[in-house]
Design goal:
The chain is of the alpha/beta class. It contains ten helices and 13 strands. About 13% of the residues have low confidence.
């Protein structure tokens, strides 16, 4: 008689817990955003590995700069750590290079500034980067794989190739341990369905380390950045909301599985919608107010259901820095003179922690150094 309808054997809760704890023990520490104040006060250490973090905001609110700070932290901490950057527009790689230079120089010498209340006092004149720093930056940039895509199927294929590369690296490590030097050809999925299957495929057991044969090999840390996912989904959402959300949900399930299984730090850049209206009779509905600040308009794009597909949802905005700046920005006269703004980072959702509702002000010095600001 066929055993097709027999149920799978039950697993003990203690066995599943032991497996989960073993998996979590391999998770790397969070990637810093570049500012200790923001890391500690808002992010509880930084962007977590093994989780999908969405960073939404309007243009020029610092989404790409924040992602580049996380990339710099990742490349500096892990000598063999790689980054997959999937860009829907031309990425400003010169800025990433400059951020790496600044971060390396900060670690090499004493900081050029010291924070004292609201004042940043200059302590020493910044020096030009050394030849050793430039060499390190060049080596770090070689670990950044950039994929330029123009539509959502391109995003799916790029993530599938990234997953295949991780599997290939595992196989190469096993072959090295076995003293087998033959190369394995890399296959790329030919369709979206095959790509989704590749993302959800379970990895083979990892080879043991040389020090302890019974200890699984700790995987090298990886980071995946998609900038900007809203750019490639906008046309699909416009044509059909149902089809767009179904495609996005299927992709996010596979991406979440890959991220958690591989302990990847995944960052998704998203746009902001509802920033302004040409209709003078328009009034914001209560559900449109996602920020803790009443003067902050807009909310993350891709619909309200997108926040349920990620682990952490972060929203970036800008606000006047002082009362005088606010009088200029929001006053009845609406003076034409310029006013100073600061960036605001808010955690709208945190599935696995207690960061939800936390916020902080920050400034991006010369677009390269992220510094917390006391309000």
């Amino acid at each position: 008689m066929s055993n097709f309808h027999e149920a799978a054997p039950a697993l003990l809760g203690s066995t599943l817990l032991q497996s989960e704890e073993k998996h979590e023990s391999l998770k790397p520490p969070p990637a810093s955003c570049g500012s200790p104040d923001v890391d500690v006060g808002v992010l509880e250490g930084g962007f977590r590995y093994g989780e999908v973090t969405a960073i939404a905001g309007a243009n020029r609110t610092g989404k790409t700069a924040l992602a580049f700070q996380a990339i710099a932290s990742h490349l500096i901490r892990y000598e063999d750590g790689e980054v997959a950057l999937i860009a829907t527009t031309d990425p400003p790689l010169a800025r990433l290079k400059d951020i790496l230079i600044v971060r390396l120089e900060q670690s090499r010498r004493s900081p050029a500034f010291t924070e004292s209340g609201y004042v940043h006092k200059r302590r020493a004149k910044p020096v030009s980067p050394t030849r050793d720093t430039m060499n390190k930056v060049s080596l770090m940039l070689e670990r950044v794989r950039i994929s330029r895509v123009f539509d959502f199927p391109g995003v799916i294929e790029a993530v599938s190739e990234f997953s295949a590369d991780l599997e290939e690296d595992d196989q190469a490590g096993k072959e090295k341990l076995d003293s087998d030097g033959h190369e394995r050809s890399r296959s790329i999925a030919d369709s979206e369905d095959e790509a989704m299957e590749d993302l959800s495929a379970e990895p083979e057991p990892r080879a043991p380390t040389d020090d302890n044969p019974n200890t699984p090999k700790k995987p090298s840390a990886s980071m995946l950045v998609i900038d900007n996912i809203a750019n490639v989904l906008g046309s699909t959402m416009t044509k059909s909301q149902v089809q767009g959300h179904a495609l996005l949900a299927n992709f996010m399930r596979s991406l979440h599985h890959l991220t958690k299984r591989r302990h990847i730090c995944t960052l998704l850049m998203n746009a902001a919608v509802g920033l302004r209206s040409q209709n003078t009779q328009y009034h914001r509905r209560p559900e449109d107010q996602v920020s803790v600040f009443a003067s902050t308009v807009g909310k993350p794009g891709l619909g309200k259901h997108f926040s349920y597909l990620v682990d952490t949802s972060i929203f970036l905005s800008t606000l006047p820095r002082s009362k005088d700046d606010a009088d200029v920005a929001y006053g009845d006269a609406r003076e034409s003179r310029k006013y100073e703004e600061v960036g605001m980072i808010e955690v709208l959702k945190d599935r696995y922690g207690s960061r939800e509702g936390r916020w902080s002000a920050f400034v991006m010095e010369a677009g390269l150094e992220l510094r917390g600001v006391r309000m």
